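Run log // design_07
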């Protein structure tokens, strides 16, 4: 009896090998497509957490009255929110003053505008909170500010919704 494989056994093992190779190639192709998108989603979630932290820290500074909060009431989600901030020792080192803060979009950037409440024509200071943002919208209901943040990259768009309840509001 001779040692070795028959032609049928070799053909069967080649067919099984080619099927396994085809499955591996298809899986690698799918991973190369899914991988960058998954990485982009993770990066967007990380960026959203940073923006969320910055927005919450600003929104927690709202003044004491809910009537001082302004939103665009013509839509369900407002493209801006405006509120009062008490600043101690500002103009004349002895008394506090009230500034009007507005969070809104400027192109693809989120900005925070500070204006004198009595002279709201020109901003005192503009602070850039984040960039690379598709949209930011606000809702307000009984002491809670809810906001929707949409981030985008080359092929991935993600929506994040968060809220902050301010302790200062009456």
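design_07 sequence
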């Amino acid at each position: 009896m001779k040692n070795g494989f028959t032609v049928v056994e070799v053909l069967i093992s080649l067919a099984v090998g080619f099927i396994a190779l085809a499955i591996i190639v298809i899986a690698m192709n799918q991973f190369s497509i899914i991988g960058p998108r998954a990485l982009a989603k993770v990066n967007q979630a990380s960026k959203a957490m940073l923006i969320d932290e910055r927005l919450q820290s600003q929104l927690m500074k709202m003044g004491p009255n809910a009537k001082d909060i302004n939103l665009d009431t013509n839509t369900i989600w407002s493209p801006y929110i405006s509120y009062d901030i008490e600043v101690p020792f500002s103009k004349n080192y002895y008394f506090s003053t009230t500034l009007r803060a507005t969070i809104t979009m400027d192109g693809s950037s989120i900005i925070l505008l500070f204006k004198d409440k009595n002279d709201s024509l020109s901003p005192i200071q503009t602070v850039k909170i984040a960039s690379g943002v598709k949209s930011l919208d606000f809702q307000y209901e009984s002491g809670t500010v809810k906001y929707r943040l949409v981030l985008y990259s080359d092929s991935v768009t993600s929506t994040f919704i968060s809220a902050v309840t301010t302790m200062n509001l009456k």
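The first strand starts at residue 70 and ends at 71.
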